[in-house]
């Protein structure tokens, strides 16, 4: 059996509908997904799954001790190979909120918007085949 080369994304949002929608958008882009319903749960998942994750796609405003900005900083520091996209419809990042490598996407987002953003920010070696082959 040949191991899969399909990359994983960790999708984090406390709204189950948005979590499902974001996961579907990333799966359409060629990712397999892990899901967490808040930043605290994501931090607990990372030690087990980080070696397979290429992308963190997270909301900002979530319950618990870890909002999306703190999660992004945590990932950038401990898992530097993971690309980071933070999304929010309420909060815009200010200086120092996000690590240098993270990008921000406003909600509401659509499939074409997310796919275009990922094509622009992901290095070719981290793009799943559907994103690499998109016109």
UniProtKB/TrEMBL annotation:
In-chain residues carrying the UniProt-annotated modification 4-aspartylphosphate: 59
Organism of provenance: Sphingomonas citri
Keyword Phosphoprotein: yes
UniProtKB keywords: Phosphoprotein
Upper classification of the organism: Bacteria, Pseudomonadati, Pseudomonadota, Alphaproteobacteria, Sphingomonadales
Record domain Response regulatory: where: 8-122
SUPFAM superfamilies from the UniProt entry: CheY-like
InterPro entries, per the entry: Bact_response_regulator (IPR050595), CheY-like_superfamily (IPR011006), Sig_transdc_resp-reg_receiver (IPR001789)
Protein name as it appears in the record: Response regulator
A matching Pfam family: Response_reg
């Amino acid at each position: 059996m040949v191991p899969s080369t399909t990359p994983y994304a960790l999708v984090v949002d406390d709204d189950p509908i948005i979590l499902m929608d974001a996961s579907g958008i990333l799966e359409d882009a060629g990712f397999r997904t892990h899901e967490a319903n808040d930043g605290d749960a994501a931090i607990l998942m990372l030690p087990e799954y980080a070696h397979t994750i290429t992308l963190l796609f997270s909301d900002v405003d979530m319950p618990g001790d870890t909002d999306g900005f703190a999660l992004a900083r945590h990932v950038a520091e401990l898992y530097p190979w993971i690309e980071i996209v933070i999304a929010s419809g309420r909060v815009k990042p200010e200086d120092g909120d996000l690590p240098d490598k993270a990008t921000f996407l406003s909600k509401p987002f659509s499939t074409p918007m997310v796919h275009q953003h990922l094509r622009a920010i992901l290095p070719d070696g981290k793009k799943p085949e559907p994103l690499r082959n998109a016109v």
